[in-house]
Amino acid sequence: MELGLYVAVADLSKSKQFYATLFDTKPYVENDNFVGFELAGGRFGLMKAAAYAHPLKQGNNTVPNIRVADIGATYQLVKSLDPPMVQESITDLGAMKLFIFMDPDNNVIEFHSLSKG
User: What pLDDT shows up at residue 1?
Assistant: First the structure.
């Protein structure tokens, strides 16, 4: 098995540019309604909400939670993209550190790192 997910977006081009910069990679597949990125052995996609067979709600309908090796560097990258931040700083939960922000379509995204131990 391999996990894939996608978020609903209004402006596919704008979201493609945002996520290509965020993930530092180009899409592996794209068409007029979908853009897909390979990420951590799975797939992260962007679906044009208006094109889906079932009505999709943009923003806050799922929360992709992505583990990264360096939470500080990832936080700085995200801040450089200037998205709306749900949390203005990295939250330290002991073995886990995380922060949450919104993409151009108000989809909530969370990055986290785990301490080794």
Answer: 60
Assigned token pair, 60: 């806050």
Between the alpha carbon of residue 73 and those of residues 9, 79, 83, 112, the distances in Å are 26, 10, 16, 12
64-116 confidence digits (pLDDT tens): 999 999 999 999 999 999 999 998 899 999 899 999 999 999 999 999 999 87
DSSP bridge pairs for 37: 44
Joined together, the tokens standing for residue 113 give 């790192």
Per DSSP, which regions of the chain are E strands? 4-9, 29-30, 34-39, 42-48, 65-67, 91-92, 96-102, 108-114
User: 99: closest CA among 81, 80, 76, 117?
Assistant: 76
Helix axes 12-23, 71-81, angle to 10 degrees: 150
**Minimal CA–CA distance to 70: which of 112, 28, 100?**
112
Euclidean distance between CA atoms 110 and 20, whole angstroms: 17
- The distance from CA 45 to its chain's CA centroid, rounded to whole angstroms, is 9
CB atoms within 10 A of CB 73: 11
